[in-house]
Amino acid sequence: MGSDSALEQLHGIIDNMEYALGRDVDVNGLEIDSIMMCAMGGSAISANIIADCCSTYVKIPISVNRSPLIPKWVGAKTLVIISSYSGNTDETIEMYRRAKAQNAPIVIITAGGKLKEIAEQDNCPIMLLPQGLQPRFSIGYMIGYIAAVMSAVGFPEFSRRIMSILDSLRNYRNFLEAPGSVAYLLADKYKDCMPVVCTENKFKSVSLRWKGQFNENSKLIAFNSALSEFNYCEANPWSKYKGNKMRLIVLVGENDLSEGGVVKRAVKNIETLRFPFDLVAVSGSSHEERVFRALILGDYVSVYIAEMRGIDASDISVITELKNRIRNV
After folding, report:
1. Does residue 300 sit within a domain?
2. Same structural domain, 151 and 107
3. Which residues on neighbouring strands pair with residue 253, listed in sequence order?
4. Which of 25, 105, 165, 313 could form an S-S bond across to 6 if both were Cys, CB 3.0 to 4.6 Å?
5. Smallest Cα–Cα separation from 225: which of 243, 248, 258?
6. Residue 57: which CATH number?
7. 33 vs 21: CA distance, rounded Å
């Protein structure tokens, strides 16, 4: 681990993304009809965010694979992007082997490890991540590199949309770092509870990120859910819940609160339960801007919780020990 604190690494995410967006990728005139992004854990969040953002305007299938098993439809016209910060995740290495066996073109995003070694042996394009980051704080590089790869194979729209909002995201980041910001206020609410992040489907990747950051940075048990599921099957248990340990967070885009919409109906349903919850509505000029503002808001909330609880947000000793035990077994 590098010497930078969690807050320093968090501050750099937007700048890292801009750097990675500008990288050139040599794909030798590759023609594709689908993209599959392969990763595990926190590395896969970048893929989920991109898939969510691109679903309405990229005209080829974009999927996320979190399993060492590669679907049989993957072949010579499916671009497979494999991300692993350490390069030593067993499942990710198996993804590489199986995708290669199915003759798929592959691009690797990693900081090193076994994945880098075997990719170099096979002359596979590699986008190198810098050493010394916590993997979860490499998200800016990972998103930027995937966007750069997509641009290289003829799908630059996502890169253009992200480039257009970078200055706005920096301003929002600076706002969140100011004392008394909304991130501090939310951290104070959640520091002693078990957060449950509930979102609309197009924000699902963000709720996964919030959950993961609560787990890894704040060292809190946390869950995520979907508003559509809440409307149909989760309202009943929440209506019976009388404790105060779990706290429901409804995370949405500000433009999703129109009367009669899915989000507004779900919020009204929650209100009828007379159960305390927080409605966090994130503004922005586009879906991408709202997604990325929501993402960094959750990151700052989770790190501020760690500070308030006197916890080192960068500590991953438990995860490291668990991985070592799994490998020894």
Report:
1. yes
2. yes
3. 282
4. 313
5. 248
6. 3.40.50.10490
7. 22
Where in the sequence is the domain holding 236, given as residue range(s)?
180-308
Q: Could you tell me if residue 321 is inside a domain?
A: no
Q: Any idea what the Cα angle at residue 22 is, between residues 19 and 28, rounded to 5°?
A: 135
Residues 273 and 140: their CA atoms lie apart, in Å, by 39
- What b/e readout covers 46-59, taking b as 16+ CB neighbours within 10 angstroms? bbbbbbbbbeeebe
Q: pLDDT tens digits, residue range 225-239?
A: 888 766 666 666 776
- Tell me: the pLDDT tens digits for 243-283? 778 888 999 998 888 766 778 887 887 888 777 789 999 99
Q: What are the angstrom distances between the C-alpha of 304 and each of 1, 67, 187, 309?
A: 20, 32, 6, 9
Structure tokens at 37: 């992004």
pTM of this structure: 0.92
What is residue 111's DSSP assignment?
Answer: S
